[in-house]
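Re: beginner question about structure tokens

> Can someone show what the tokenized structure looks like for a real chain? I only ever see the sequence side.

Sure, here's an example I had lying around. Input first:
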Amino acid sequence: MWCTSQRLESAVSVGGGRSTGGTHVDERPADRRNGSLPLPPTSRSRQRTGAARADLRVDDAARREASEALGVHMAAGRLTLVEFEERLDRVFAAVTESELAAVTADLPRTAPASSRARRRAAARSMVAGWLALCALFLTIWALTGADYFWPVWPMMGTGIGTLPGAWALWRGTDDPQAAQAR
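And the corresponding structure tokens:
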């Protein structure tokens, strides 16, 4: 059976197997249930072995996050446009976490928006969208003669679907019915 200590040792060793004449031979035992090889060690197991975190390769999500942080710093006036472009090139060329960290090392850390702030911003945008739609209905009604007040029906229909969801977001629940019960 493939145990944790063997997995950790293979994470530290180069390649996890031996090479014979240019062909890689994996010495790990096959999984008996389906005959396949076990999954390679995760980055978490590499961290437990003491492997340097800075030498781990970065993914596109980490690059995107770093580029967004640079944009925040540029908007705050900490970076000029030229510096921003140079650092952005370095972010997308970064291969390891140490290269990525070096790009923002001299900048203060930006705190991510709290989940409460994100929820409330989403609720505000839902209500703002609904109000814009109501304004559109009212404008069409006014331009077409302003006889029977028909906008009440689409305003109510869209409001019934939008406003409880926005209220649930504002209050911090995912379920609109639970927010109404409070």
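Each token stands for a local structural state, so reading them left to right follows the chain. The chain has eight helices and two strands.
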